[in-house]
Design goal:
Layout: E1 5-8, H1 14-25, E2 29-34, H2 37-46, E3 50-53, H3 60-71, E4 76-79, H4 94-122, E5 125-129, H5 144-162, E6 168-174, H6 183-186, H7 189-197, H8 207-218, E7 229-232
The structure holds nicotinamide-adenine-dinucleotide.
Nicotinamide-adenine-dinucleotide (NAD) binds near residues 10, 39, 81, 131 and 176.
């Protein structure tokens, strides 16, 4: 039986690798894109998929068409590649603004536009990787929070415009997930432990936690779900008010 095909950006490491792993296990043909060619090849081999190395900023339409040419059709696009450039907002440089805009927003939009005719033909779906930072400002991360707010807004708009042609568009908003992007924090044991204890589920997320929700959103089980961005954060974003000191706060 022919496998359904999915183009996954930034699939060579971190959350992307976790998404590739879960989708591969569930029978998808994963076309693993990454700017790091070696990483794309390693993951593609592990999930019995196909590597599609390349920078998504560089001719995204051509990248998408290459995926279709390899797979014969396209059933899903997962816009996962994303970057963060740390700075306070007052000091964010124009170069960093342009870079984060190009990777996190512009390439996602151009790839999705290019995928649309193929997804209409297959009755396919898009999943975009946003962040809890879209709704909860991440200070010291420059333009990142704003870029992820745009990812979530794009998800909602595209779902409304593309729904009538049978294409669903959803998103996931990861919380704290241990990947290279966040390794500077998690390699310090005390910081790791402090953060772990701040999660209601008492663990830092793993890339496959995101992969499983992406797999659900691409599956028949989610056939009436579109325009949703699901927080996958171990409950972290529900804890804000409990952080306030109060004399009657129960212990434990
Ligand atoms: N790690 C977290 O805690 C966290 C939380 C919320 C959201 N996210 C989001 O999840 C996504 C994946 O993040 P991650 O933590 O796995 O990061 P990561 O840095 O571990 O992995 C990102 C991958 O994308 C690739 N990539 C970067 N720019 C690219 C480009 N221009 N073209 C093609 N590939 C490119 C990188 O080579 C890398 O393999 C991002 O969109 C990120 O914003 C991560």
């Amino acid at each position: 039986m022919n496998r359904k095909s999915v183009l996954l950006t930034g699939g060579g490491s971190g959350i992307g690798e976790g998404i590739a792993q879960v989708l591969g296990e569930r029978g998808w043909h994963v076309l693993v894109n990454d700017v790091n060619a070696e990483a794309a090849q390693k993951v593609a081999k592990a999930v019995k998929g196909t590597a599609l190395p390349g920078d998504i900023r560089n001719q995204p339409k051509a990248l998408l068409e290459q995926a279709v040419a390899i797979a014969g059709s396209l059933h899903a696009l997962v816009n996962n590649a994303g970057i963060i450039r740390r700075s306070n907002l007052s000091e964010t440089t124009e170069a960093d603004l342009d870079l984060v805009y190009d990777v996190n927003i512009k390439s996602m939009i151009l790839l999705s536009q290019a995928a649309l005719p193929h997804l209409k033909a297959s009755g396919g779906a898009v999943v975009n990787v946003s962040s809890i930072a879209a709704k909860h400002s991440q200070t010291g991360a420059g333009f990142y929070s704003m870029s992820k707010a745009a990812v979530s807004a794009f998800t909602r708009l595209a779902s409304a415009e593309w729904g009538p042609s049978g294409v669903r568009v959803n998103g996931v908003a990861p919380g704290l997930i241990r990947t290279a992007m966040a390794e500077a924090v998690y390699s310090v044991p005390e910081l790791f432990e402090k953060r772990r204890m701040m999660m209601p589920l008492r663990r830092i997320g793993a890339p496959v936690d995101i992969g499983r929700v992406v797999a659900f959103l691409l599956s028949e089980d989610a056939s009436y779900v579109t325009g949703q961005v699901i927080d996958v954060d171990g409950g972290f974003t529900q804890t804000l008010i409990s952080l306030l000191p109060h004399p009657e706060t129960p212990k434990g």
